[in-house]
Amino acid sequence: MSIAEPRVEHHPAQLAHHFEDLGQQHESANLGMWTFLATEVMFFGGLFGAFCIYRFTDPVAFAAGSHHLSVLWGTINTFVLLTSSLTMALAIHAGQTGEPKKQVRYLLLTMLMATIFLGVKASEYYEDYEKHLIPGPSFTTDLKELGLPTDVPEHTVQHTQMFFVFYFFMTGLHAFHMVIGLGVMAWMVLLARKGRFTRDYYTPLECTGLYWHFVDLVWVFLFPLLYLIDLHK
Amino acid sequence: MNNQSDHTALHDHLLPLSAYFKVYAWLMAFLLLTVGAAYVDLGRLNFPVTMLIAVIKGVMIMLIFMHVKYSHKLVWIFAGASFLWLLLLIVFSLNDYFTRDLLHIPGK
Amino acid sequence: MWDFPLFPERATEIAGKVDAVYFGELAVCVGFTALICVLILFYAIKYRKGSTASRANAVTHHLALEIAWIVIPLIISMGIFGAATVVYFEMFRAPADASEVYVLGRQWMWQIQHPGGKREINELHIPVGQPVKLMMTSQDVIHSFYIPAFRTKQDVLPGRYTSMWFQPNKVGKYHLFCAEYCGTKHSGMIGSIHVMEPADYEHWLESGTQTETLATSGAQLFKSLGCSGCHGLNATVRAPLLEGVFGHPVPLEGGSVVTADEKYIRDSILLPMSQVVAGYKPVMPTFQGRISEDELLKIIAYIKALGRNERSGQ
Amino acid sequence: MNAYAATEVEAEPSYLTAGQTIKSWLLTVDHKRIGLLYMVSITLFFFIGGAAATILRLELMTPGGDVVQAETYNKMFTAHGVVMVFFFLIPSIPAVLGNFLVPLMIGARDLAFPKLNLASWYIYMLGGAFTLWALLMGGVDTGWTFYTPYSSMFSNTQVMAAAVGVFIVGFSSIFTGLNFIVTIHKMRAPGMTWRKLPLFVWAMYATSIIQILGTPVLAVTIGLVGLERICGVGIFDPKLGGDPILFQHLFWFYSHPAVYIMLLPSFGVINEIVPCFSRRPVFGYNAMATAMMGIAVLGFVVWGHHMLVSGQSMYAGMVFSVLSYLVAIPSGVKVFNWTATLYKGSVSGDTPMLYALGFIGLFTIGGLTGLVLASLSVDVHVHDTYFVVAHFHYIMVGGAVMAYLGGIHFWWPKITGRMYPEIWGKLAALTIFIGFNLTFFPQFVLGYLGMPRRYYEYPPEFQVLNVMSTAGASILAVGYLLPLGYLLLSLWYGPVASRNPWNAAGLEWELPSPPTTHNFDEIPAAVERPYDYPLREHDRVDS
Prior knowledge:
Order of helices and strands of chain C: HHEEEEEEEEEEHHHEEHH
Structural class of chain C: alpha+beta
Helix content of chain D: 55-70%
CATH class of the largest domain in chain C: Mainly Beta
Largest interface: C-D, 90 and 96 residues
Largest sheet of chain D: none
Shape of chain C: elongated
Shape of chain D: globular
CATH architecture of chain D: Up-down Bundle
Oligomer: heterotetramer
CATH topology of the largest domain in chain C: Immunoglobulin-like
């Protein structure tokens, strides 16, 4: 970025050349993040929409698929992720008050939670793999294994597999967002340790937080849709 | 809307820490509630109840954790619009699925 | 060279109605386009740079005018919507006495089967003046059955039945096109509709090898696939009797009621667990993978034939 | 032409001369340079898509198959559609003119996120590379609509490479939209209130809403198609338990609003040109801005009119049909308002104005025939025929491309600092107008006659109209090559342009031509109302 800026001497170091002041820069970044999150809502939203429509067309198959998921692990993971949202909120609070040590501490805690979540998710995936629930040629067609009543048509088996297509696509996409979040948080930790975030400037930290809360928000909807709604059947 | 005068000061939505813990406690309570409710057969109500709890949790996260409650009304609009659009997608698609075969004309 | 057509032939009554709506729309299109073009040219010339026309009292907004050009087009377009929708419902609501022809689309041909059992490929012979209903499905990708002279078209989907109907009023040979892109020879998936005098049609039906009717073949399949073992009168397993079922409401397990139409019968054969008749055990095996689209059509024809008989007791 | 010659001498180098190395272009974060990078790339894609169209029109000269094989023909219309829609029309006005003009018009030094802006160009090029690769490796034959189950289970062509290209280029579009939204909200000069914004900026804002909310759905839909194609797991293919209609819902949820991504920016351009060359404020400013926002929102709930014979329920068809009529109303308002802008103006027929007036006429025809297509029973007949092809070319070529060319001519002096030869400009505009109508008007007739689209061979009675169309296409091709030639030549031989050769209103015209890298030395503090065109003195009395 070039620096041929007439009033450069008035500008704080964090201020990019094309903004007038830090307030404008901060608001732009914040609004940009929200716009990006709106995009993300529609990105996951297309999948939610397709999932809802297919669940409506074959509830039996989707219920059978859902029964393979472990509610215990799902609940634990929800707990972990909600907690990580809390620690992230605290990290931003520390940003607002300009306390680098607390920023680093809470960011690391959040990263720890994220890692636990991903670990649990991976073990769930592994369990699904062992039960031959990965969609594709290896997907089991054994009705008993699938928990379907004997004598259901082929379509129901296909729709059960479809449940897992959506399960893996949605949770996989969600996990992918978490991995990116982990990377961004690691970067924030580095910046925070250098004391880059002060009461006047903590925009990157805030944007990371918004992103992380969004990841949490997606899970708040994924968890009941995938694990819970057919539990009573 | 004048840009310069409109830039909110950076420090004005510093919440007390207790606010975050309070929301966290509520989130935990709703988590237990939704898992519990899932085991009870409420008939047709299971789906709406579960989704309602999810929406409540989501709104709490957005309002407090994501500071929407203390943000510019623009943020309210953006946060709301994305969900409105998602609703449009789902409602108008489902409208097709719910009304198929209403007239007993195959394919219509 | 100049004897090419500018307007398609019209061979059904509905086609006339579609054309009427179209002409109405065309009038609106031409009217508004002419209005805009004339105004633009007129203003551009009258108020050209340097002209002496008076520019006094020019306004930059005018509420009444703006409301007028919202409300007037709105009224016109709602009128068009209403007219078009009425005709649309007429186009797809088949009369009860329409004879049924089955259509199977596949890359890249149309297989057509008459209720009498006669088969055709890429050709459809029908009598003039009688309503014909097509029950259509596809074996592979999406196709679309399109007869320009009848102004009608319907996508043909794999795994699902779609239908259309028409009542030709003019003897002749008309184009049949596939209108939904379906692969390399999409443009070769064409054929003809032969609308014939009833006598010629009878003659055509009798010509060629005589095959049994769809319903008769269906009856044989009904036995050979073992359906009659349960759905028959002397069955050991209790299953619903199918006489007189078609077209009537059927109460289901769980309290809902469906009408026994083609889709319901197809689903019941392929997905028997999904809609079990109230009071019966869900014991019917699926026939998914054991029965072809072709055979399904025959069995449906048979069950329909049963439906036309008197309801024969419980 | 001498009247346009520059009088002032600029001390600071312009954005064009502020760095001459290739690196200074490829790593630039200057919105104006990025706009030019886009201009060069989309021009390339325009001519690639045009070459495919040439083959289509040549093949259709005769009823039988002679020029190419059926497979090749199918690959060509797919290439034409994919390239023109995703790599030319969608980025055209926003990424070129929008990038260049939005900061200038609102009094900002750059877009809010300059690096993201550069990144979106690279993402565009990456997506383009994938798609070109798909075309070179044998092509794709699904049509730009990628309908399942054909695209996911049946086609043996390079569907995945093309789909990945479209997936990637979507993010370029999203990031451009995101940048505009934030820029328009947060970077306006003091005093540049929403009601003082040029309507071009309003148009960019409305477009951006569609880009950020629609595009992700396309991306995820393509992802699902890819999953079905690669892993063979059922999503849309009925044989595997899927529903192909769901694909169509998701696809059109983006792809119908995508039409407005092409069209709203065109409205924006026309909104600037018509007042300037009529010397009048735009008629009904509030209605114009409201109409564009209304189109952006309503445009999201009409997608099902692409599916009226698809097996969608009749009731859903009715809902989509009636909403389609509603979305036509704001478009009508715009046409009437442009016409009223001419009234009592001082109209001159410079090249941009010729394009603008051509746009209004062609868009009117395109829009009104859209009403024919939205009416349920008539659509049953004309759906998937050449009537549809003619209709959307009137919108996309007669509309979006005319507006793009009009805009390029209008702002060419600002962008390059040079004037193009006016006489050649007028000639090209006229050639394009005539060629366009001759190409596409016969297709309305063909469509109502019943000629289905995407047909390699056709019954002989359709030949004369097809020959007319091909003849028109060759005129159109000349029309498109002309500006390429004289605009390029003007870079070296054109007279130097003044700050404001058209005597136009708007902040961008107060800057030197071409502007400096930082646009404004001081952010403008007081902003006049937009389109402040007083009548010329000599028009008030006489001349």
